[in-house]
């Protein structure tokens, strides 16, 4: 009850202050963008082909490159389900949320994009570990100024609060935990 009242207040304030501003999609130039659906963010090209799927957590871009830091949610779900077949879906999802595993990607905007099969495009490089990613940055001669930014840094503070509350719904729905 208290959780629903808090959400209602936040939504009313959000509607009054947001002026229909949507945080997604983020335009990355040359038709590339970060889109969002079903609690997942992903990178698409100008033809809406999904280039990188999973939970994009950080990104940046310039006229030549897009860099992506991603939590590979589907890959983690699949591998944990195979490794622990007796665990429930909820338990698997909790493990995925807690994992620190990240993949790093580079999209070369200058390179012609060719479908390579098996979900790969010629201008999409990765997934990399952080060490391999740093080596590729040097190889591609990326400027030091191209640093990751949080995907929610462009979202108004209210949007970030709503996102946080949605993720922690169980915590907030416990009696007397929100202090109202």
Description:
The protein has a five-stranded antiparallel sheet, with helices on one face. It has a four-stranded antiparallel sheet with strand order 1-2-3-4, with no helix packed on it. A two-stranded antiparallel ribbon has the order 8-9. It has helices at about 1-20, 75-85, 90-100, 130-140, 155-165, 170, and strands at about 25-30, 30-35, 40-45, 50, 55-60, 65-70, 105-110, 115, 120, 125-130, 150. About 15% of the residues are buried. The chain has about 180 residues and is of the alpha+beta class. Mean pLDDT is about 80; it is low at about 15-20 and about 170-180. Helix 1 (about 1-20) runs antiparallel to helix 5 (about 155-165) and helix 2 (about 75-85) packs across helix 3 (about 90-100). A hairpin with a 2-residue loop joins strand 1 and strand 2. About 35% of the residues lie in helices and about 30% in strands. It folds into two domains: about 1-20 and about 155-180, no CATH class; about 30-155, no CATH class.
